C-alpha cells in the first residue's frame, strides 16, 4: 500500500485528487461531515462540460442540459445595461447533486474510502509539519493532508502563522449568496433571460434573475450575511422589477458562502495542500469554482505522484502551487481587481462607469469566461476621454485596471522552486499588486 493520504472534506477538487491518487496506488481516505445524500446543493450550476473529459470521466448524457445564453448586466440605476453575448460559448447548467454522484462514484471505484458524518476539528502538527487531522472520532495520521473542506475549513485557519499559508479572508472576499427557484408567473418574459444586477438596490453585491420556461432562478448575494427579514424585503423589491418571480419556493432557499478573491498565494506547507474553496479558487466576479477546483485536483495529484521520494514537503508540493498560479490564478487575480473596483466605488460611481461606457462588455465577459481577450486595459485613453466628467472615479478605475495588467506579470514571476525568502517576497509583491483598498 502506498503512502497514507487524507482528504479533509468531500470538496470537488479533493474528490478528483483522491481518485487519481488511489488509482496510482496511494491509500486515500476522505473524511466528510455530512451524510452522502446531503452532499451538493439543490440547484444547477454553470460549468464547462469539457471538465469531465479533462478529469478522465465519461461525459454524462447532455441531451437535457440547457446552456446559458446572453447575459444582461444592470448598473444600480438600471438605466445603462450591458448585454454580453454568449457567442455560442454559454456554460452548461448542470445539477450539483448529479455532479456529486459522478465524483463520489468515480472516487469509490478508484479505491478511495469515504467516511461520512465525521467532523474535522483541526490539523495535527509536528512542529511546522501537518501530520494528520483531529476529528470528532479521534486523531487520524497522514503522510499528506489535502484540505478540500471549503471556505471555512478548520485546517487552514488553524495552521501556525510560520507555515506562511494565510489563515483568514477579509471583508469583500466572501460572498453570502441566497439561491432559490420560484414558480414563474406567466406573461412576463424579459428580452434577455439571464439578468445580473450589480450593486443591487444600492448595496455591495449582486443579484440575478434567470427566467426559464417553468421557473425563475433567483440569487441574492451580499458582502454580509442577510437576515430572513432582509431577504423577504429584497425579494419583494425584486418582484416589483421582475414580476415573473412567483411566491412559491420550488428548490434551494439556503444562504451559502462563496469566496470572491484572488487565490491563496501560498496554498501548501509540509504535509499539507489546499484545493478548491479552501484556497479561494473561484473566479472572483462570477463565483464559479467547480471547474477550477477539479482542475487543481488534477494538478495536485500529478505533483504528489511526481514526488518519488514521498516527502510531501512545501518544496515538493510547490510545483502544484506554481502551476495553479500560472494556469489559472493569474487570470483570476486580474478579475479580482475589477471586482474590487466595483466594490470600493460608490453607487453613483458605478452608474457613471456604465453610463459613460467606461466599463465595457468585454470587461464583464472576461469574468464569465466568455471572452478570452482579457480585460480591455489597452483602450484606457479612449475611456479616459469619456470619463473626464468624474475624475476621482475615473482615476481610481483607470489605476485599478492598469493594475490588472501588472498583476499577471507579478504572478508569472512566481519562484520556480520553494525558497522561503523568495516565496515571502513574491507573496508580498502579490499583495502589493492586488491591493486597492485598506482591508
Ligand atoms: C449559491 C452558489 C452558487 C454557485 N454557483 C456556481 C456555479 O454556477 N458554477 C461554479 O463553478 N461554482 C459555483 N459555486 C461555487 C462552488 O460551489 C464552489 O466553488 C465549489 O463547490 C468548490 O468548492 P469546494 O468543493 O472546494 O468546497 P465545498 O463545495 O464547500 O465542499 C467542501 C466539503 O467539505 C465539507 N466540510 C466542510 N467543513 C468540514 C468539516 N469541518 N469537517 C468535515 N467536512 C467538512 C463540506 O460538508 C463539503 O462537503 C456556487 C456556490 C454557491 C454557494
Report on the structure:
With 439 residues, the chain is of the alpha/beta class. The chain has three domains: 192 residues, FAD/NAD(P)-binding domain (3-Layer(bba) Sandwich), CATH 3.50.50.60; 86 residues; 102 residues, no CATH class. The chain has eleven helices and 19 strands. The chain has a seven-stranded mixed β-sheet, with helices on both faces. Strands 8-2-1-12-19-18 form a six-stranded mixed β-sheet. It is globular, with a radius of gyration of 22 Å. The chain binds flavin-adenine dinucleotide. Flavin-adenine dinucleotide binds next to α1, β3, β13, β17 and α5.
Structure summarized in a few sentences:
With 439 residues, the protein is an alpha/beta fold.
Spatial arrangement of strands, main beta sheet: 6-5-14-15-16-13-17
Structural class: alpha/beta
Kindly state the number of beta strands: 19
By CATH, the superfamily of the largest domain comes out as: FAD/NAD(P)-binding domain
Into which percent range does the helicity of residues fall?
25-40%
N- to C-terminal distance: 47 Å
**Major sheet details:** 7 strands, mixed
Taken from the alpha-carbon principal axes, the silhouette is: globular
**Number of helices, counting only DSSP H or I runs of 4 residues or more:** 11
CATH architecture of the largest domain: 3-Layer(bba) Sandwich
H/E element order: EHEEHEEEEHEEEEEEEEEHEEEHHHHHHH
Supply the CATH class of the largest domain. Answer: Alpha Beta
Task: Quickly count the domains.
Answer: 3
What small molecules are bound in this structure?
Answer: flavin-adenine dinucleotide
Instruction: Find the CATH topology of the largest domain.
Output: FAD/NAD(P)-binding domain
